[in-house]
Amino acid sequence: VLTTSALIDAGKVTPRTRIRVPQNLPVMDRVIHDYFQHDLIKLTLAGVIAKSSNIGTVLAARQFEHAELWSYLDRFGLGHKPNIGMPIATRGLLPPVSSWTDLTQATVAFGQGVSVSALQMISAVNAIANGGEYISPSLVQGRATAGDGSVVGTDVASRSRVISPQAARATAKMMEMVTTEGAGTAPGAGIAGYRVAGKTGTAQQVGSKCTCYDGSLAVSFGGFAPADDPRFTVYVVIQKPKGTASGGGTAGPVFRKILAALLQKYAVPPTNTPPAALPVEW
Fold first, then answer.
1. Are residues 221 and 144 both part of a single domain?
2. Three-state DSSP class for 183?
3. At what angle do helices 102-109 and 54-61 cross, to 10 degrees?
4. Domain containing 203: what range?
5. Each residue of 15-64: pLDDT tens digit?
6. Helices (H), the chain
7. DSSP 8-state secondary structure symbol assigned to residue 253
8. What is the CATH number of the domain that holds 192?
């Protein structure tokens, strides 16, 4: 979703851009697949997000030069250690653009070629909810002095624009299609009466002993509501789920329960506006 929001901001695509998505996609010496089997399918960019197509994302991202995509992801906070005053915060991994190949861009575009923490990911998704403006994350309301002497908290949080408000709104509408019955992969993350924007995620995990992919997964779901006037951003990660698991089917319902509880607790009313109705196929 970060890649597609960047493409929209750069004026290279719209949610209705048509993409022919083949069964698989050779890139250099590797072959990229989608999580679901299919022949040639015709998806819009909104459909690429709704169906969570790795191949569609890679094809769309080819309109970027390597440095363009890297710059957007850098501004979304990837590769930067959040200043929250705690040593457990990590910078993750966004490979330096000087090392990128076409395969690097392809895997980074759909999220496999980067390493991020939950805090980094929710902060990036929150930038879309916040009209395209990134706000550095805080665990302290107000301000506090950390053990290393740095001042942290919401009073000293920084703000920077990553994408335009128009691009953020367009991305939010595409994310709505993810939770739309019959269109997206996670209708179970939707909340009756509310417009909910979200995105699934599935990541391979690196084992501590082999420092290689060890076969385990982390599944996730992140999003916000109301989609057209966001009040809360929620991100759920389930590490090493047992059995068959997916971002939409496993993390999505947990996301829904947390978000529904927040909307109820803080008496956030539905916006009563028409939901997004973007075409996902053509």
1. no
2. coil
3. 130
4. 179-265
5. 999 999 999 999 999 999 999 999 999 999 999 999 999 999 999 999 99
6. 2-9, 45-51, 54-61, 66-75, 102-109, 118-129, 165-178, 252-265
7. H
8. 3.30.450.330
